[in-house]
Write a sequence for this structure.
């Protein structure tokens, strides 16, 4: 199964998150860009055990990233680092390579310029984020990420019993 269209992912994201907003569109585009840079054609299916994703914000964008990648906290494939950045690092653990994709702050101003006739900022951004080229919407950086065995999907860590409450 190959990657879906942006529209198909938007429907899935709205269902999973409860609404569709600019953050969702941004997260979908970010994840699609990240997995494409890594050459993963089926991140939520055949390639699911190859991908670990680090997200840097706990906003709408993160829920959208999970729709494309299939990475979830409960599957140990989604890692949350609260840096307050609209960014995510997509790691191909089989090929030992990773790319960090961050939204350009300038994309908000560009959205205003592209859709100045739309008063609602969210709608401006939704329309623009669907259309902007990846290079205008994101900056990418190939990075090295140390992922230990304890961070890999499937790792069975011993459970810790609380000394106070049992």
């Amino acid at each position: 199964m190959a990657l879906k269209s942006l529209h198909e992912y938007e429907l899935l994201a709205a269902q999973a998150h409860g609404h569709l907003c600019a953050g969702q569109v941004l997260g979908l585009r970010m994840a699609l860009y990240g997995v494409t840079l890594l050459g993963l054609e089926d991140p939520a299916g055949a390639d699911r055990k190859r991908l670990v994703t680090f997200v840097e914000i706990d906003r709408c964008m993160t829920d959208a990233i999970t729709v494309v990648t299939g990475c979830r906290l409960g599957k140990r494939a989604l890692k949350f680092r609260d840096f307050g950045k609209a960014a995510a690092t997509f790691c191909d653990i089989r090929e030992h390579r990773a790319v960090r994709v961050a939204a350009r702050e300038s994309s908000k101003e560009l959205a205003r310029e592209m859709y100045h006739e739309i008063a609602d900022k969210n709608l401006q951004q939704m329309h623009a984020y669907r259309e902007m080229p990846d290079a205008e919407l994101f900056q990418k950086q190939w990075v090295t990420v140390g992922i230990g065995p304890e961070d890999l999907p499937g790792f069975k860590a011993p459970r810790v019993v609380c000394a106070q409450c049992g």
About this structure: The chain has six helices and five strands. The radius of gyration is 17 Å.
